[in-house]
C-alpha cells in the first residue's frame, strides 16, 4: 500500500461528502466500538475506506473507530482508521473535520509506516511515509523553528479538568485554539501553523496515529504530557495516551516545565 | 443598502480568495488602526468592501479594523467591517476565517440593522435584518432549544487569564471549542451548533456587530459576561465589550451563575 492509494480514497470521500453532505443527517445510528455515537457520515466514510482495501485484496488487520478491531492474521500490517475525526463538529454543522488513515507494520507505534489526513471541508491533504518526510498538498513541510509560542492548541474530552491541567502552559501562549479534530491539529502543527498541541485526557489510537507520524516526519517532538516516549505503545484498539506535541525541542521543554 | 448588496460583495471576495489565496502571503504590511498586524489578505478584503460601497455612492460612515474610523457626516448610518475575522488562522494556514459586515442606523448597538458573515473557506453565508430573522444560506435559522450545554466556545486575546475566568462555566460543558473567529462563533451558534459562547476579554465592535445581530435574530441571548445589556454601547471604533451569548435563556442563567 502506498500514499497514492490512500489519497485516492481520501479524494473520493471528499467529493462524495462535498456533494451529498451526509453530515447534515444527524440521526444517530447507535454506538460504535469506541463508545461514541455513530452518525451517517461516520458510517459512510468507514464503509468507503474498508471497501477500498477489501477490493484491493489487502492483507491487513483493521482498527477502526466505529467497527472496532478485525484481526485477520497475526503478522499482517494494521490499518488504523478514524473515518471522521471531528464528528461532533461535522454533525453540528461546523466545517472542521477530517479523515485519518494510518498503516503500521509491527506491534508498536514505532512501526507506523504511512499516515494520511484529508480536511473534508477544503480538501487539504497531509501525508507522511516513515523516514521520507511529511507533505502538504504535495509540498514538503516542516514545523515552526520559532521558539516563542504563538498558537497553543488543545483537545479535551472532559473540558473542565483538562483545561485546568493545561492552564499553566497557556501562560506562554499568544493565542489558544481548540478545534475539535486531533488529526487536523497535528496536521496543521506539522506545516507550521501551531507551536504546541496538548491532549491532557487520553487520545485514542485512531485519532492520533496518522497525525503523529506526519508530525514526527515534519520534525515535531512527540511525547505524552509527562514527557515519556509513546513509541512502545501497542498497536491495539484500546491504546490511548495523552499527548504533548511541539514544533521544536525548545518549545517542548518549556511546555513540560510548565506542566510539572 | 440591502442584504443582497452585502452578499454580492461577500461572494466575490470568497471567489477571489479561493482562487488567489492571499492568506499564504504572510508579509506583514504594518499595523492597522486596531493595533493588529495587517496582512495582504486583510488589506485586499477591506479594499474590496470599501470600493463596493464607494462605487455604489453609499452615504455611510465607516468603522473598519485596518483603516479605522471615517466619519463623512454625523447622521449617516455606519458601516462596521472586519475584513478578515480570524486573520491569525488565515495567515497560519488554518482554514477557519470569515468576513463580517454590519450596518447600524443610529448611535448605539441597538440600532444595528443588517449583519452579514461569510465563511471564506467554504462559502457558508449568514445574515440577518433587524426584526426579520436570521438566515443561513437562505434558510431561516434558530438557536438550540436544548437546555443541556453541549459545545461551549470561547475566544481569548489573553489566553491564560481568560481561560482561568471561564473555567467554572466549563463544568457544564460536554465539549469546548476555541476557533479563533468571533464572527463565525456567533454565526454557528445562531444555527444551533453551539450552546454558549463566551468572550471574557473585551471583543471589538467590528468583530462582533454582524454576529450579535444574527444571534439576536435567531433568538440567542446576548449580554456582557456580567449579564448587562450591550444595547446602549456606542457605535464607535473604540467600543469593546466582553460577551456572553447563549442559545436560550436557561443556558444563559446557568452560565451567569457559574461565572459569578
UniProtKB/TrEMBL annotation, chains A, B:
Amino-acid positions noted as binding Mg(2+) in the UniProt annotation, renumbered to this chain: 65, 82, 84-85, 207
Required cofactor(s): Mg(2+)
Superkingdom, natural source: Bacteria
Entry keywords, A to Z: Magnesium, Metal-binding
One function term, GO molecular function aspect: inositol monophosphate 1-phosphatase activity
Pfam (any one): Inositol_P
GO biological process: inositol metabolic process; signal transduction
Transmembrane segments: none
UniProt xrefs under InterPro entries: Inositol_monophosphatase-like
Stored PANTHER family: INOSITOL MONOPHOSPHATASE (PTHR20854), INOSITOL-1-MONOPHOSPHATASE-RELATED (PTHR20854:SF4)
Name listed for the protein in its UniProt record: Myo-inositol-1(Or 4)-monophosphatase
Organism: Thermodesulfovibrio aggregans
Amino acid at each position: 500500500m502506498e500514499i497514492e492509494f490512500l489519497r485516492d480514497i481520501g479524494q473520493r470521500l471528499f467529493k462524495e461528502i462535498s456533494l451529498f453532505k451526509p453530515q447534515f443527517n444527524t440521526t444517530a445510528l447507535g454506538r460504535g466500538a469506541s463508545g461514541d455515537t455513530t452518525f451517517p457520515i461516520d458510517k459512510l466514510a468507514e464503509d468507503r475506506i474498508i471497501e477500498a482495501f477489501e477490493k484491493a485484496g489487502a492483507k491487513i488487520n483493521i482498527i477502526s473507530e466505529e467497527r472496532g478491531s478485525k484481526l485477520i492474521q497475526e503478522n499482517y500490517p494494521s490499518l488504523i482508521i478514524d473515518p471522521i475525526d471531528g464528528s461532533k463538529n461535522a454533525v453540528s454543522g461546523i466545517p472542521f473535520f477530517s479523515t485519518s488513515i494510518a498503516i503500521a507494520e509491527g506491534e508498536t507505534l514505532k512501526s507506523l509506516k504511512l499516515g494520511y489526513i484529508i480536511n473534508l471541508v477544503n480538501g487539504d491533504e497531509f501525508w507522511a511515509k516513515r523516514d521520507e518526510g511529511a507533505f502538504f498538498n504535495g509540498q514538503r513541510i516542516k514545523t515552526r523553528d520559532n521558539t516563542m509560542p504563538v498558537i497553543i492548541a488543545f483537545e479535551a474530552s472532559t473540558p473542565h479538568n483538562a483545561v485546568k491541567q493545561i492552564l499553566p502552559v497557556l501562560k506562554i501562549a499568544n493565542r489558544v485554539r481548540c478545534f475539535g479534530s486531533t488529526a487536523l491539529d497535528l496536521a496543521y502543527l506539522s506545516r507550521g501553523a501551531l507551536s504546541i498541541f496538548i491532549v491532557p485526557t487520553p487520545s485514542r489510537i485512531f485519532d492520533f496515529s496518522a497525525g503523529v507520524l506526519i508530525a514526527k516526519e515534519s520534525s515535531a517532538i512527540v511525547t505524552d504530557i509527562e514527557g515519556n516516549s509513546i513509541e512502545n505503545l501497542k498497536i491495539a484498539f484500546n491504546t490511548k495516551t495523552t499527548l504533548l506535541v511541539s514544533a521544536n525541542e525548545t518549545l517542548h521543554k518549556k511546555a513540560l516545565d510548565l506542566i510539572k
